[in-house]
Structure to design on (367 residues):
């Protein structure tokens, strides 16, 4: 490793960092910090879970002889966050405590109700995850480039805030500040509502004939990808954030009803315009979703046919690099019953035409 690489891995965080909860998020925090050389200790109610996370390299199991950590990261399930934070503040009186729960207002309000001194507590939430949980799915780069929300209040000491921000930055997060109320309303719209809609849409597939499912393409896969998430975890999240989620669901249901009424009789006056306006509103909404590096810039899409044989995808990616084409995103789709797949590559609009021409010249088939 050269000096530049060593400097790039130099940690901002001051260890040791103690992680309570060794599942997906907790183990990923540990893996990322350990990669930076930060000392990490682990704790979990399940001996098997904490031992597995330690085996994967997320840290070592904390012992009674270990010194007070500089920072405690609570990564327990949402319905026990308040209990875990309260215990951590009491057990580690010299430590700053944060949590990575996806709901911020309910645990914060509960801690206030209990009269807990929250001077050393800073709520946070990395907007990252995977459809499946557990230490076995943990990744050191899980948080890279993802928003990391910090929810501090006016009483938060600067040094406490700095410790939490240092960990977020070391793990590659992009810092943003919100109040707990702002955070929960935001994630209710951009995370919790999509989960419910995706799950309900996927549920419609259960009674569908196999022949119908055989026609499924990228659109269905895109809109149902997160439907495989853990129902028990989402019961906790949705229950804790039910007020904004119900509000957004009611508005969504109203849009669905309006759309269905117009489509039921498209000959009625104004029906076609209502359908077109709702579809156009979708165009406007998707154009506001931030793209790479926090930019709302839209990318051009290139579809390349890839033979379903070993090494073909690697060859495509290698040749894109040789051509100097920066790939902004990549999606893969297999064609049922055929030995071929589709690679959908997102590139900047100004290089799309050249990218297609260069790939075709090298023998690739594009759509």
């Amino acid at each position: 490793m050269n000096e530049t690489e060593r400097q790039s891995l130099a940690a901002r965080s001051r260890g040791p960092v103690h992680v309570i909860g060794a599942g997906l998020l907790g183990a990923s925090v540990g893996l990322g910090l350990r990669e930076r050389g930060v000392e990490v200790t682990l704790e979990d109610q399940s001996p098997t879970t904490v031992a597995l996370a330690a085996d994967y390299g997320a840290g070592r199991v904390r012992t009674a002889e270990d010194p007070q950590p500089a920072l405690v990261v609570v990564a327990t399930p949402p319905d026990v966050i308040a209990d875990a934070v309260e215990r951590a503040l009491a057990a580690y009186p010299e430590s700053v405590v944060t949590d990575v729960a996806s709901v911020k207002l309910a645990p914060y309000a509960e801690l206030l109700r209990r009269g807990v001194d929250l001077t050393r507590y800073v709520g946070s939430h990395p907007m990252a995850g995977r459809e499946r949980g557990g230490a076995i799915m943990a990744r050191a780069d899980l948080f890279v480039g993802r928003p990391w929300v910090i929810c501090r209040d006016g009483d938060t000491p600067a040094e406490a805030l700095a410790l939490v921000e240092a960990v977020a930055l070391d793990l590659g997060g992009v810092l943003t500040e919100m109040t707990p109320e702002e955070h929960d309303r935001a994630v209710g719209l951009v995370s919790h509502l999509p989960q419910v809609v995706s799950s309900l849409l996927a549920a419609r597939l259960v009674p569908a004939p196999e022949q119908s499912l055989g026609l499924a393409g990228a659109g269905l896969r895109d809109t149902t990808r997160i439907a495989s998430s853990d129902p028990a975890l989402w019961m906790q999240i949705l229950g804790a954030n039910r007020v904004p989620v119900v509000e957004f669901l009611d508005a969504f249901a109203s849009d669905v009803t309006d759309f269905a009424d117009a489509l039921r009789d498209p000959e009625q006056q104004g029906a076609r315009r209502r359908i077109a306006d709702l579809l156009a509103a979708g165009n406007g909404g998707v154009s506001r979703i931030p793209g790479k590096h926090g930019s709302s810039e839209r990318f051009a899409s290139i579809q390349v046919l890839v033979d379903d044989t070993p090494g073909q995808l690697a060859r495509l990616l290698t040749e894109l690099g040789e051509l100097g084409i920066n790939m902004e995103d990549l999606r893969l789709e297999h064609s049922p019953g055929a030995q071929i797949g589709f690679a959908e590559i997102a590139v900047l609009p100004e290089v799309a035409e050249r990218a297609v021409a260069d790939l075709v010249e090298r023998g690739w088939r594009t759509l």
Observations:
- The chain is about 45% helix and 15% strand.
